[in-house]
Design goal:
Layout lengths: L7 H14 L4 H21 L1 H16 L6 H15 L1
């Protein structure tokens, strides 16, 4: 199979991946990207119910007025990020 890439920005991104990962070829980069995508798809499929339950819980909290106001959201997210580091 031959793949023609017409988008020069995409081609540059792929070449950057080849260099940064030490891959021997574009084929290796594409294989790694596909494996990663397949792994993410499997994880999402395996965790769909818990994810949906968390989303539903969040919606219910918002419906009850338990959400964070827009004015406080940036500070709250910054705090969470700082705690994660």
């Amino acid at each position: 199979m031959n793949i023609e890439i017409r988008d020069t920005a995409l081609e540059a991104r792929i070449q950057k991946q080849v260099q940064s990962t030490g891959s021997g070829s574009v084929e290796e980069v594409l294989l790694r990207l596909l494996e990663t995508q397949e792994e993410q798809d499997r994880w999402l499929a395996d965790n769909r119910d818990p994810i949906n339950a968390k989303i539903q819980r969040g919606i219910e909290q918002l419906d009850r007025g338990e959400g964070i106001s827009e004015e406080r959201l940036d500070a709250h997210l910054a705090k969470l990020k700082a705690n994660a580091e």
